[in-house]
């Protein structure tokens, strides 16, 4: 009876402990101890909205597939200002307006967002980066500087820590440029290497990846299992909205990415 009560108390603490409180580390270790058969992953967000932050549909698709795969997921974002703010109804920058990446990302995380500076790779089995121009504007300077871009210091640290620990990294849409820049020699995909009449409007990204020392592997997002796995570096990528196509193709490609990320955890 005593063991049952103790177990029940621990499970209550896991469920209701605020992830921002001083007990958050205790909560994480208890989860690891009791829910040892589950996956513990995180998403790194870059704001809220395709043109200046996270691609919301991609982030949601990642959550669906992780949930279906039996993963516990936390959401992180850097506590920095956005490069700029875009009026999504016009597709144009909003004059004299500024927003914070962490604050905007909280919209997608339903308020449960954590500062990326607090992330420790030892607490998780894998990390996933959704796309959206925030990856190229806020997590890096790729949208402005291309192959000569710089990557946010915490994003760079996270990528290097997970890679060094042999833990899988998933990236979709434009975010594979982050891995290509920080981890030269890795294999990634952002889709096809030619625009094909506007179907792949950002095809030139493949050339930039090669210029940064990455290896680009062309993939067609309209094939449901369209993800590329770099087994040596445990990096999994999928084109997602780099292609102008229907949402279900994006959803399926992200599903393939997540399936491989979970497989590479070895659980």
The end-to-end distance, rounded to whole angstroms, is: 31 Å
Q: What proportion strand?
A: 5-15%
Q: What's the count of strands?
A: 11
Strand order of the largest sheet: 5-2-1-6-7-11-10
The count of helical stretches stands at 10
Assign an overall shape.
globular
Please estimate the helix content. 25-40%
Radius of gyration: 18 Å
Backbone structural class: alpha/beta
Query: Which runs of at least 5 residues are low in confidence (pLDDT < 50)?
Result: none
GO cellular component, one term: mitochondrion
Protein name: Glutamine amidotransferase class 1 domain containing 3
Subcellular location: Mitochondrion
Keywords: Mitochondrion, Transit peptide
Tell me what you see in this structure.
By secondary structure, the chain is an alpha/beta fold. The protein has helices spanning 2-16, 24-34, 56-68, 101-108, 134-137, 142-145, 153-164, 176-182, 205-211, 247-264, and strands at 39-44, 71-77, 86-87, 92-93, 113-115, 126-129, 169-172, 187-188, 215-216, 228-230, 235-238. The chain is globular. The model has no long low-confidence stretch (mean pLDDT 90).
